[in-house]
Amino acid sequence: MSASSFRQPTGPELEIMQVLWEHQPTTVKFVHEQLIQQREVGYTTILKQMQRMSEKGMITRVKEGKQHLYSASFSETQIQQSLYDKLVKTAFKGSPMQLVMHALGKNETSKQELDELQQWLNQQKNSEKK
Q: What is the pLDDT of residues 93-126, one digit of tens each?
């Protein structure tokens, strides 16, 4: 199953996935402990959400002794690519350049970030010449 073959993850699902990407395999209890540092959320809410995510194939569950250990079914890069593809296609009419221009125009961009962008552009230009 590819990352784009399931429904796009919701915000709360992405929060769970981020914990799993950093600490997998892990328990619902650990995920809950991480998420309550960011916002108030009940243990049973996280449990139910992770059970649904497992049913959808977004995460896997393995029983180890009395515990269930969860892991992400897809890498962070796969999910980012899937979300990026959908965003560019739907909100920016298939134009990555429109997305970049929108992002740069809406936020304060530091000199360091602009320098990094310029360095990347120079690398792209140089690689085209070869």
A: 999 989 988 888 877 888 898 899 899 989 988 8
3-class DSSP state for residue 124? helix
Domain boundaries, position 65: 3-72
Both tokens assigned to 86: 């959908």
Report d(CA 55, CA 108) in Å as an integer.
41
Q: Is residue 81 part of a domain?
A: no
Distances (CA, A) of 33 to 21, 39, 44, 77, 129: 15, 10, 12, 25, 51
For the whole model, what pTM was predicted? Answer: 0.78
Q: Are residues 66 and 116 in the same domain?
A: no
Determine contact, residues 6/72, Cβ cutoff 8 Å.
Answer: no
Task: Verify that 20 and 64 share a domain, yes or no.
Answer: yes
51-94 pLDDT, tens digit each: 999 999 999 999 999 999 999 999 999 999 999 999 999 999 99
Residues 62 and 111 in one domain: no
The gap from C-alpha 19 to its chain's centroid, in whole angstroms, comes to: 10
- How many Å apart are CA 48 and CA 25, to the nearest integer? 18
